[in-house]
Amino acid sequence: MSCQLAADNVLYANGLYRLVYDLVGTILPCWLSYVIAGLVMIFVLVNAVLLGAAVITWAERRLLGRFQNRVGPNRWGPFGLFQPLADLLKLLTKEDLTPDGADKPVFALVPILMVAPLVMMTAVIPFAENTSLAALNVGVLYILAVSSITSIAIFMAGWSSNNRYAMFGAARSVAVLISYEVPVVLSLLGVVMVAASMSLGSIVEAQVLPFFLVQPLAFFVFMAGMSAELNRSPFDVAEAESEIIAGYHTEYSGVKFALIQAAEFGGVGVVSAIAATLFLGGWSGPWSEYLGWLWFLIKTGAIVFLFIWFRATYPRLRIDQIMAVSWKFLLPLSLVNLAAVTLEVFLLRGPEGVLTTGDLGIMAVINVVVTVVAIWVFGNLIRDRVKFQARQPSDVVVPGVTTIEVH
Amino acid sequence: MTIRTEPMTVNVGPQHPSTHGVFRVRITFDGEDIVEVEPVFGYLHRGTEKLAEERNYVQVVTLTDRLDYTSSMINNQAYCIAVERLLGVEPPPRAKYLRTLTAELQRIAAHLIAVGFFVQELGAFGTPLMYAFRSRERILELFEMLCGARITVSYMRPGGVFADAPREFWPALDRFLEDFEVEFAEMEQLLLENEILMIRTRGVSPIPPEVAVNNSVSGPVLRASGVNWDWRKQDPYDAYDQVEFDVPVGSHWDNYDRFWVRIQEVHQSLRIIRQCIEQIEPGPARLELPLVLRPDPGREAYGRVEASKGELAFYLVSDGGIAPYRCKIRSPSLINLTIIEELLVGWKLADMIVSLGSIDINMGEVDR
Amino acid sequence: MAVREWAGQELSEALRRELPEAVEGFDETAAWVNPSQVGAAAIFLRDEPSLDFRFLNSITAIDYVEYFDVVYHLTSLKQQWCAVFKTRLYGRQDLSLPSVYQVWKGADYQEREIWDLMGVYFEGHPNMKRIMLWEGFEGHPLRKDFL
Amino acid sequence: MYGFAMVKGLLVTLKNLTRKPFTIQYPEERARQHPRFRGEEFVWYEERCTGCASCAKYCPLGIIKIVTSPSESAIPQGDKYRLEVFDIELQRCMFCGLCVEACPYDALFMGSGFEQGQYSRKNMVITIDQLRNAEKHPSTWFRPQLEGYEGEPSSGRGSRSIAQGDSRFTYDPRGGPPLGWREVGREGWRWHQREKAGMRLDTESAEQAGAGDE
């Protein structure tokens, strides 16, 4: 028997899925081959995320090492490439501890809830032309919706651990996640508006000029917001190791810890992939029908590098300052971006409602200026808040000693 | 509607990533704000003062290495000055210069640690710390050249230093000074004006000078509070009366000033080292003293230096025996901790770690 | 500009002018103060502008078996001078001294340490308990009879 | 512009990314070890030792155990005891070097190794046989005669007297050959002629050496 996938199915666009579906469909009933083909794709995606997480842990440790003028892990395999494997083996052999007084089912559920949204997010990412598992026409919305599941998982971890540091981490994390959703969503609105679609595939195709040039402000806000949502430096308060030990996952050990780590670094990978898709043009590039995956990987890698670079450079902000950055800096910036893009789209688009490459170029020029001005204005507004007056000199100053004073 | 909250007591330490050793503070939080602080000490108490009463005057030098293990040269110096005052002897000038030089090298190393960990506690993931350790490594290598050990140096002896510097020390020192300029400038570029560091530390936990003085705070913390008190200036020991340097003083009394004062003191230490290299003359590096010292009974001496953490003093009392009858260690780290309440109460959890880092305690010295 | 160190006689005379009953005598470097008068002497030493000892360097106790000496090292940052005063406690049991915590808060941990290791109790200290050793530790290890 | 210093910071870390790491990959590479390095295994020259136990007395931790008995041959010569036990409890040693400083005959030296890790504390005691049989790579700690420029005036601004970059050590404890007891002595051949410590143990070669010196 032969099965035919309906052309309006969200999975239709994925060539690999159709291949598996057709292959299995020759011997099994259609509904079963639908499920089996789905399971095969899920297997591929889960492994892609976990393998990506492993590679990113390795890259992060190596790169942090080099940023810090040392070598990083280099003992296992060539360039230490097997280091994540060794770490995994170590974590698997460790005792899986559940603290006394913990809410056990919730505690055990957390690692799964951390990884699941990541894998779900990868379903709509186009790795190359026509390779997203589901070519959802509301892909951006789907990603935003699924990514906020993580905050629940983090709060569950903090709550169920019966540990005060974990509680601190969870409370901080939820506060951060909720406030950073707003600027991130607003920054993505601009992208959606220019691309005139919520489907990631169409957004990639709309990027004849990559959107990080067309909307640098949106890219900036998105990266900052995503750093916060991923608990990456300089917004890594939720697991600020110098303050609250490991934050929400203080009590996790063994396999659960491995999964949480995987979710964390996998998150970096997935978010970088999304950023690459939305702002760097995803798989588009020369010979994109053959090398699309390569462009995609290179662009994703570039974003991952940015994340690691920031982590290597910046100290952490305090929780109230992070809130201030979100509401007083990133939110106005995203609104400025939205207003600018709305006006430009309204004025520039042609009679049939399409933006040409020339229009995008004009937008890029205007928006670069807007970005510089907006960051300068709002940066100075923030700076005025953190200026401090020098205090009165004390009366116990010893005369006759040459001193130098801070200004 | 009012939300009912209840305070939460957390034991920060003795096992916590950033308490500088086995220090424990019992903190009561209201949300993230600190309401009550109670430090708990003693996890590293080794009874150094009692041990010193059972060892002869030279053997105690090895104990002083282990007080503040990030600045053992300065500990040696303080102890040797106390013993010299007890004996009423004066080391030869070359020994004085060698002591000054090594103490300043050690001060750079200790301040590098202080600054590195301060920024680490702000959340910079190891990068400034690694840069600090990169330079500190060179200093430790110089110490290894001088005396065969890197941390527990035991370099100084009552009456001088154990031996003159080897010949290869001087070119190595020159090379270090050359490279360190570049490396330290890099670190300053990374940190000194960083906006995140500024907003995290400016205005946080200011200590007014009156409070600092009343709490017997000394060292960079006192100077950051606007008091230009430096024992190297006020009571010059060794060769400090021969060299010129400035005393950096804070004007905001906050965490940033404490950080900034340390950075500036590194520059001043470099100045002192350069002058020492210029001024040092050939000569003996150690007084001919007997192996076992016996000061006159009934004598007492208070030998103090400006250590990297503050005023480090040894109060020695002799009963005429070969061991000190009483060896009191005035440890700056412990006494600087007196301001912990003024420093922490009312600030947030994140600031607490940074403020603790800014007074730069060392548990080896706090608990002794 | 070295810091001037007060001779014992000088300090004892300065103290005697205001607190004649507090001074017991002097030696080369230090003035001897009556144990019961340490609190009053401390307030005077800190607040009298011609003395201005606002900085307490250290407090030390020394066990001489028959008696304990407690030594206070003081500095005036403004006037740049240092002084030492001592007090002597006879006996080995139930020793106590008035605390100078309210005068110099820097005495906080040092007094606790002396209580912990030497067994000299400081009356009026708000938190007089062991600092280095745990509560319930028997004896005071820095005493000469502690093995 | 506010935020400019943050960009500067990014450039600093980027510059360091391209720089050669300053760390040393230990088993393959080794850090330069300085001749004064106070290393683990002690170097002991029985020929020089009189069994006076100065080292044991001067050790701050009291970890050196020496048992001697009068030796028949040496009693008339006045100064030599037979050593029966010479134990150094390495696990408590803090390598302060005071024993070396106390030794009046230059019989005890700090070693120059640092790879004596053991799995059992029992193995951390250096016995007299181990001391006798060990390869002798003494450190120059408190032994200026090994540094090879004894007698030269120590120059203050010594940096001028040596060309930049020329930091070759005059004596390399690890790389060089093991040193015998005659090579590490502070004193001239006449000292040995006077039948001091060690002559009795190794009379023939000592005489030859003495003759060679003449």
Report on this model:
The complex is a heterotetramer of chains A (407), B (368), C (147) and D (214). With 407 residues, chain A is an all-alpha fold. Chain A has one domain (96-387). Chain A has helices at residues 15-25, 30-67, 83-93, 104-122, 139-147, 149-160, 164-195, 200-206, 211-214, 216-229, 241-244, 254-279, 288-313, 319-348, 357-385; one strand at 403-405. In chain A, helix 3 (83-93) packs antiparallel against helix 12 (254-279) and helix 4 (104-122) packs antiparallel against helix 5 (139-147). Chain B is α+β, with helices and mostly antiparallel strands. Chain B has a single domain (45-331), classed as Cytochrome-c3 Hydrogenase, chain B (Orthogonal Bundle), CATH 1.10.645. In chain B, the strands form three sheets. In chain B, strands 1-2-3 form a three-stranded antiparallel sheet. In chain B, strands 7-8-9 form a three-stranded antiparallel sheet. Chain B has a two-stranded antiparallel ribbon with strand order 4-5. Chain D has helices at residues 4-17, 54-58, 98-102, 128-133, 144-147, 189-193, 203-213, and strands spanning 39-44, 64-70, 81-89, 108-111, 125-126. In chain D, 32% of the residues are buried. Chains in contact: A-B, A-C, A-D, B-C, B-D. Chain A binds chain C through residues 395-396, 398, 400-401, and chain C through 1, 54, 77-78, 80. Strand 1 (403-405) of chain A pairs parallel with strand 6 (247-249) of chain B, so a sheet runs across the interface.
Which key terms come to mind for this protein?
heterotetramer; B: 368 residues; alpha+beta; Cytochrome-c3 Hydrogenase, chain B; three-stranded antiparallel β-sheet; 15 helices; 9 strands; 47% helix; 12% strand; globular; D: 214 residues; Alpha-Beta Plaits; two-stranded antiparallel sheet; elongated; disordered C terminus
